[in-house]
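Backbone shapes recur. Consider a single case.
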Amino acid sequence: MKRAVSAVLLVAAVLLQVGVVDRLPLPWGAVPDAVLLVLVAVALHSGPAGAAAAGFACGLAVDLLPPADHEAGRFALLYCLVGYLVSRHGRNEARSALARYGVAAAASLGTAVGYALLGVLLADPRVGPAAAAFAVPATVLATMPVAPVLLAPAERLLRLLDSDRYDGLGPPVAPVRIGGGWRG
């Protein structure tokens, strides 16, 4: 159930990103990274391999769907790394809501820096030191204000589904001790 919900959340985030957010005429050209925020929520509730695979899949979708204007594979690589690293290391750090936002900010910063570095390595004419110095903080500053709208609800839903006793029909059932064993 949690995998299906995670997949639906990521597909919705990709469609929101490429269909709405990337087309917004925001000042400075920086747009919020909706996919990254939902990926962080999914990675906090997944294993490293699953989070990396989810990051690769949604990154490849962002790379290939219009209005993509960069080489295919940049976001696939970056989101794959973000999914893996957040799942592997961020899960231990993100016990509070403030810490989860810190993990999301670090992931946003890492993705923006990684995108700029890949642009330099791939000789992207739009990426230079001055452009990167402006775009990296602008991207983080555009992403974090929408974190309460995307990260928090996705993370709350996935936390609800983390319960081993969740049947998908109502709130999770807490096990109770009956006689000599545990019953749900």
